Amino acid sequence: MLHIPIPFSTTEIEEQKTTKRCYPLTLRTPMSNPFKTLTAICYSLPVQDKVSLQIYDINGRLIKTLVSETKPADNYSVHWNGRDNKDEELSPGIYFARLMLANKSIIQKVIKIKQTEKI
Asked: Which of 19, 46, 85, 87 is the one with CA 20 to 30 A from 61?
């Protein structure tokens, strides 16, 4: 009979199954920033809770709600196409992505630049 040693005990396997990942509340700098037509906004949640991710203009007006729901702790990514809640194209400029979870809030600057015309 061939004996193959197992490098870990069954207790270690059980611990690996029940170990929870810890995600700090994070709002990363948007990928493609500045952007012309599309940018990806990535964030992490430490706990399951109601979360919102919204875009504001330089004057503090709400422009676009990207996320508004309860989500479990995990890493997420959402795309923003530079349009408002009415699906209207926004002017080039400085905008702010605001992630809110419980009583915490994180803000990242997002810059939309003018599209160059193709000739």
From this structure: 46
